[in-house]
Design goal:
Blueprint lengths: L1 H23 L1 H4 L1 E3 L19 E5 L2 E3 L3 E5 L6 E6 L7 E11 L9 E7 L16 E8 L12 E8 L16 E4 L9 E8 L4 E7 L7 E7 L8 E7 L6 E12 L22 H33 L1
Antiparallel strand pairs: 1-15, 2-5, 3-4, 4-15, 5-14, 6-11, 6-15, 7-8, 7-14, 8-9, 9-10, 11-12, 12-13
Helix pairs in contact: 1-3
């Protein structure tokens, strides 16, 4: 009987550890893939089209690698837009991208991610129209004016349909949030993860530039209201300076429950650092502590039972 009780206690400890691990991963269970706003290789069908996205301008498709919005050439402009608007209230968009070229000192200009009322209207703002209505996130690699931060830089702007993008000052007068991020010319996979909740009016951007699944906060915005039915877009342009701007994949998911995005706008986040992996290590220690605690309780109960039998 004592042997069976030990097995029971050990089983309970393992079960509790498993439950704790599942709890730590429950965010993945909150996501449901949204095929209408996701894009993967080979990107096009036998008719050289995509059911859910349109391509245009100078964009080129390599079915084994990426959608190249611009080549490493001057005066390029390309775009990629969803055909349907996003009709869900809470969603997450994870996009893999690559920016780079032959230039060592002079390169540009960058690319943009859009959630706007308009779609597929080429223009001067990273390849899309000015005076837009909705959200623009600019992955800017070229400094036009004097800035208090280094480049590359990621900047968020909410357009009301009337406000002009402050191109001469790299959007500094339009800035809601931003961060420095060394995303250009990386050999590692570079990704962005945009999370939005209409229920809580909050938006968060994380960026991966160094290690797989290591995400660094770029900014969190509160009191953000996107258009009711925004289109998802990616655009890029080059001028006298240039780069390859590639979109490798787009994974959009609807969230069953709205996320709790705490904090206010972060405008000065440092470049990605390997220190962010410390959080996962601390979580592991916490889970291990729970496991050790349960095993200790099981051992003490078994010892008391054994002592009573000897008595």
């Amino acid at each position: 009987m004592l042997f069976s009780k030990k097995r029971f206690m050990l089983g309970a400890a393992v079960a509790l550890l498993s439950a704790t691990t599942v709890f730590a991963q429950e965010d993945d269970d909150n996501l449901q893939p949204l095929r209408t706003h996701s894009l993967y290789m080979p990107y096009i069908d036998q008719d050289l089209q995509n059911r859910w996205f349109d391509f245009g301008g100078d964009a080129l498709i390599n079915t084994n690698r990426h959608v190249r919005l611009t080549q490493d050439m001057p005066s390029q402009s390309g775009w990629l837009w969803s055909r349907l608007p996003l009709e869900v209230s809470n969603f997450q968009i994870e996009f893999e991208f690559a920016v780079g070229g032959k230039g060592d000192n002079l390169f540009g200009d960058g690319f943009a991610v859009w959630l706007t009322k308009e779609r597929a209207e080429p223009g001067p703002v990273f390849g899309s129209r000015d005076h837009f209505e909705g959200l623009g996130i600019f992955f800017d690699t070229y400094e036009n004016g004097r800035s208090p931060h280094t480049f590359p830089y990621v900047l968020a702007m909410m357009g009301d349909g009337r406000t002009k993008y402050d191109n001469d000052n790299d959007g500094s007068n339009n800035k809601l949030g931003g961060c420095e991020s060394n995303f250009r010319g990386r050999t590692e996979t570079t990704k962005g993860r945009l999370t939005y909740s209409r229920d809580t009016s909050s938006l968060n951007l994380k960026i991966q530039t160094q290690f797989w699944d290591q995400w660094d906060d770029c900014f969190t915005l509160q009191d953000i209201k996107l258009p009711e039915l925004p289109y998802l877009g990616f655009t890029a342009h080059t001028g006298e300076v240039h780069d390859n701007h590639d979109i490798v994949s787009v994974t959009t998911s609807t969230m069953v429950k709205a996320p709790q995005l705490l904090g206010h706008t972060r405008n000065t986040a440092p470049p990605p650092s390997s220190k962010s992996g410390l959080g996962w290590y601390l979580k592991f220690l916490a889970i291990s502590g729970v496991f050790v605690g349960v095993v200790a309780v099981a051992y003490n109960m078994s010892k008391k039972s054994n002592d009573m039998k000897r008595f």
